[in-house]
Amino acid sequence: MLKPYHRKRKIEAGCDEAGRGCFAGPVSAAAVVLPKNFYHPELNDSKQLTPEVRETLRVYIEKKALYYAVAMVDHEEIDAINILRASFKAMHLALEQLPVEPALILVDGNRFAAWRNIQHHCIIKGDGIYASIAAASILAKTYRDKYMCTLHEEFPQYNWVQNKGYGTPEHRRAIEEHGLCKYHRKSFNILSAQIEMDFDFEHEEIA
Q1: Could you please report the per-residue DSSP string of 175-202?
Q2: H helices of the chain, where?
Q3: pLDDT of 113-162, one tens digit each?
Q4: Cα atoms in the 13 Å half-sphere on the side-chain side of 167
Q5: How far is the C-alpha of 20 from the C-alpha of 30, rounded, in Å?
Q6: DSSP 171
Q7: How far apart are CA 12 and CA 107, in angstroms?
Q8: 20 to 30 Å CA-CA from 84: which of 67, 78, 188, 199?
């Protein structure tokens, strides 16, 4: 069972992102403020859930959350400022859309760029520990997946409706056959011999 809060008497926003390691499309992030008694038996890290369960939880979270917001940073800005900075920016944009300013931000992962001098805690695998981070992971994932399905209609050869822009073997073969399109992240160097690179962005340094 996930923890319902970190500090009971503070307004907490859970934050998480989706799509950081993808070859194409935006990175998305969500900020979610839940009531202290929020509970759903299937709530968990979005990566541990089926698409059907994620969608059910998305509807439930949007109905029961006190506040939530989702933001995206597109492939062009990712290329311009790097994926780590873009992930932080997406989280900041989501936080800015909340109608209240939280007193505490809970962030999945091991680093975060401070926002408005609000206290924050980085929690490794936090989407499997705190309900608000898990909820944010689900909103970030479902919103981005839906967006990638719309991009699939323009470039069906990459099958983004299935792989959502991740570097699956199918997606890599499509890149080898068709090259990159305008939605691919050019800064990721995913062509030719470099297509087999291991993208470990948890340890990427800010340039």
Answers
A1: HHHH---TTB-GGG--SGGGGG----GG
A2: 51-64, 75-81, 83-97, 131-154, 160-163, 169-178
A3: 999 999 999 999 999 999 999 999 999 999 999 999 999 999 999 999 99
A4: 18
A5: 13
A6: H
A7: 10
A8: 67
For the cut 70, the answer to whether the pLDDT of residue 201 exceeds it is no
State the Cα torsion 164-71-199-142 to the nearest 10°. -30
Question: Does the pLDDT value for residue 88 go beyond 80?
Answer: yes
Q: Mean pLDDT over all residues of the chain? A: 92
For the entire predicted model, the pTM comes to: 0.91
Contact 102, 95 (CB under 8 A): yes
User: Could you say which DSSP state residue 118 is in?
Assistant: -
The tokens describing 142, both together, are 């479902």
pLDDT attached to residue 190: 81
Count of alpha carbons within 13 Å of 113, Cβ hemisphere only? 13
| 165-199 confidence digits (pLDDT tens) | 999 999 999 999 999 999 999 999 887 434 444 44
- Of 89, 81, 109, 86, nearest to 203 (Cα)? 109
Q: How far apart are CA 14 and CA 134, in angstroms?
A: 8
CB 72 within 8 A of CB 178: no
CB 101 within 8 A of CB 116: yes
**Residue type present at position 138:** I
Tokens of 108: 């999945």
Residues of the chain above pLDDT 70, percent: 92
Tokens of 205: 């340094």
Residue-range domains of the chain with CATH: 12-196 (3.30.420.10)
